[in-house]
Each structure stands twice: as structure tokens, then as C-alpha cells.
Amino acid sequence: MGMVGLRSDKNLLVVSLLVFLCGSCTRHNARTPEDYIGPISAEPNAPRISANGAVDPRAAIRTPQRQEGPLRVTTEQAVLVALENNRALVVERFNPQIARTFVPERLAIFDPVLTAEFGYGWDWLRDAPVDFDRSGPTAGVGVREFLPGGTTLGVTGSTQFSAPIDMGDEYASTIAFQATQALLQGAGAAVNLAAVDQARIDVQLSQYELRGFVQSLIAQVEETYWDYVLAERRIAIYRQSLDLAQKQWEETRERIRVGDLAKTELSAAEAEVALRREALINARSTLAKTKLSLLRLVNPPGARLWDREILPLSLPVSPAIMLDDVEPHVTLALRMRPELNQAKLLWQRDELEVVKTRNGLLPKLDLFVTLGRTGFADSFGRSLAGSEGNGYSALAGLSFEFPAGNRAAGARHHRAVLTLHQARQAIGNLSQLIELDVRTAYLEIARSQEQVTATAATRKLQEEKLQVETEKFRLGKSTSLLVAQAQRDLVSSQIDEIQAVVNYLKSFVEMYRQEGSLLERRGIAGPGREPVEWLEEP
């Protein structure tokens, strides 16, 4: 009978340990979200947006770049190089990884805790019928685990050796099982898993934040790319106008030499040459500054970053895109904008905080049960079997705790409720601002499109005007000043035309950024692609 008791007690301890360890390892495993940023073609199942700008996976194919020599890139290639090498993006990529470390930290509260202790004790008893001295070592091991439902389970095993005077060695071994169940405060998986769910929401928040950063980076790269193209075109226009002004100056000087014009005509021609040179100097400075900005954004690999030349391969041509009504763009923005999805996640996080603080308003009432058996013998093995005597113990009861007034918990809950209401109102406010952004960007596209047509017509008329004024000057019916003015007007119209085309291209970039679809429209996959589901107030 003793050996049967020994085996059953050992089995109880072993089984309990295995249950705790296996349960903690298989429970609450969080799915690892993806933080991939790159071409959609690398992710066959990645979603695409087809409205007004269907994604062509071939546009996202990476073209290898040499690490030395001029940087020859299209807008798509510039974006891809930036996604690989931009220093600020490298820094931002760490945020989801850092946020993800909080999930196992929150889950660790449900991991089993192993305990062990060893000590040495002395007991003296005097002034009794028989003097009593006893000393000896004590040892114990145990395991406990906290479960999401609010239950704490534990198994402990301990043994105590003593050697009383004039008596043989004695061992006392105890195996005990403890269970505590929260009945009010701390009861239920909802409150105990709230911190874990909040940590997972924080991971999603960091992913949407990263997505917003990537969209802004792509928009910056494309807009700076077109600014660089515009700066190059300006230089070409100013060079051409300078050549034209110099020819006009030479013709004026020759006609003055032969007596066809007065010497006063030469001043206007010389002033125009100086003015064109000044404009060319400013245009070169603008190009140099824009090149530095573009290199900083793209950050191509290789040495001597700031000295690399850039050869843009994309031409500033008005895109052949027919915009539909503004409402689909607004609807898309209200689903895809990273800021709005972040706000919705914050509301969910605040909901969990209310769950936690509401539970804190309850008194602490726990039910506890302890079952144990102690065996006595003259050896450790026999004491486990209880061959010389057994002692059994059982304890059950309730524990109660509640601070008078519970003001701290009440204040925390009130604050959490107010924060939740504030978060809901913030979502409504942000939704309205997003709709304003989209509608404004939509109007800017329409304005830019009309501006392209208008500036092209103006440039054509200015060319004709210059031809007429130049012909009149050669016939002696005009002056150098009027010819210079006509040349200046033509230069201004040429720059306005290329500026209008670039603005038109940039207006689409801004529109897609405002509606949150820029990554998909550029064939780029990124974290935070799935919109957060949201139930609006009725």
C-alpha cells in the first residue's frame, strides 16, 4: 500500500508539471505579422487596387544599379532604390520589431514558474518533561502557473530531515496541491488577456505608422525626381534663351555699326544678356540643391554619394488617366489611410483599457483550495511512501480585499472612459479632415490638367509673338527692348508649361497619397495593407 501511495504521489507531481509546461507552451501563440516592403510581384497573393491606375507588376521589376558612375533611373527605379537604402526608412523599420517584443513579455505572466529552496534548521525545546533538540536540512521544489481565466495552480513537494537527541533520523516529506480562483477582480480571460491584446494592437499600430512613412517617402522621392527634371529643363530653356539673347545682341551691335540703329538700342540687348545669365546661374543652383535632396532620399550604394550625377530617364509627359467621380476616392481613403486605421486601433486599445479599469472597480474575492499529504519515516524514500505514518491536510476558503472608497480605481476607470470617448470623436474628426484632403487633391488634379492645356496654348502664342516682333525689328519697326520683352515672355511661358506638366504629375502622387493607395498603385507591398474594421455609431 505504501508503494502504491508513493507511485501515485510521484505521478501526480510529474503529470502536473507536464500539464503546466505543455499548456504554457501551446497557449497564446501570437501570429507574427509581416513587415515586407518591396515589389508586389515578389508577393503573388498581395492585394492590388485597380481603380484609376491598375498596377503593372512589370513596372516594379528592379533594375540593377552600378555603384559607381551616373545614376540612371526612372521614377519607379528611384523609388525601389530608396526603399532599399533610405537611411530614415532603415530606422523606421525597427519600430514594428521593437513593438513585437512586448507581446511575449505580456504573455510571460502565463508561463509556469519553477521554484526550489534549500535550508538548514534548528529546533530547541527546554523546560519540558523531556529536553528536545533537533536540527537538519530542508528542501523543496514546486511549480505554479497563472491561467487566463484567473486561476492560479501550484504543486509543491518538500522534505525535512531532523536528528532529535537520543532518537533515530527522521524524514517528513510533503506533497501539496494549491488552487486559487479569482471570483470578482481578476476573473475571466477578457481582463487577464487585455494587456496581451493591447501589445498586439501596438504591433499593428507600428505597422500602419511604417506604412504611412513609406507612402510619404515614395511621394517625396517622386516629387523630388520631377523637381530635378524640371530644374534640368529650366537650365536648357535658360541656355537657349541666353543663346538667343546673345544673337540678338550681336545683330543689334552689327546694325549699329552699319548705321541702321542708334547706339541706345545696344543697352537693352546687353541688359537682356546679363539677365539671362543671372537666371541661368540661379537655375544651376536650384538643380544642384535638388540633386542633393534626391540623392539623400534615394541614397544609392557606393562611395562619393554627393558627387554622383543623376540621369533621369522618365519624361515629364501628362498621364493619360481619366479621373472618375471624387466619391470612390473618398471611400477608398476612409479605408486605406494609415492615420485613420491607427486611430481605429487606438480606439480598440482604449476599449481594452476600459475592460481593465472596470474590473479594477470590483472587490478582490478569491476562492482557494489546498490539498496535501505528509509522510514520516526514517529515510527519504520511505517518507515519500508514508510507511511509518501519514498526515493529510485540506484547506478551503475565501479571501476578501477592498480598499475603502476605492478612489484610485474609480479615477482610472473614469479616465479610461473619457479617453475612449475622445478616441471615437477623434476618428470622426480625422475622417472629415481626410475627406477634405482628398477633395482638395482632386480639385488640384483638375486645375493642373487645365493649366497644362492653357500653358501650352500660351507658349505657342508667345512663340508667334516673338517671331513677329523679331521680324518687325529687322524691318526697323520695333526696338531691342520690345524684342527682349517678347523673348522674356516666351521663356516664362516655356517654363510655365513644363512646370504645369510637372505639377500635374505631382498632383496624382499627392492624390494617391491622400487616399492611401500610393503603394499599391506603384506596385509596392508594405505592412498595414488590410483596413481596420470599424463599427460607426448609429
Describe the structure.
With 538 residues, the protein is of the alpha+beta class. It has 2 domains: 2-27 and 112-146 and 151-185 and 371-401, no CATH class; 74-104 and 195-351 and 412-525, Outer membrane efflux proteins (OEP) (Up-down Bundle), CATH 1.20.1600. It is built from 14 helices and 10 strands. The strands form 3 sheets. Strands 3-4-5-6-8-9 form a 6-stranded antiparallel β-sheet. Helix 2 (75-85) crosses helix 7 (194-257) and helix 7 packs antiparallel against helix 8 (265-298). The protein is elongated, with a radius of gyration of 40 Å.
* CATH class term of the largest domain: Mainly Alpha
Strand content: 15-25%
The CATH topology label of the largest domain is Outer membrane efflux proteins (OEP)
What is the succession of H and E elements? Answer: HEEHHHHEEEEHHHEHHEHEHHHE
| Count of runs of 4 or more consecutive helical residues | 14
Low-confidence sequence ranges: 1-33, 43-64
Q: Provide the structure class.
A: alpha+beta
* Overall pLDDT: 83
Residue share in helix: 55-70%
Q: Would you identify the CATH architecture of the largest domain? A: Up-down Bundle
What's the number of domains? Answer: 2
What is the total tally of β strands? 10
Distance between the termini: 70 Å
Multimeric status of the protein:
single chain
CATH homologous superfamily descriptor of the largest domain: Outer membrane efflux proteins (OEP)
Q: Main sheet? A: 6 strands, antiparallel
- Cα shape: elongated
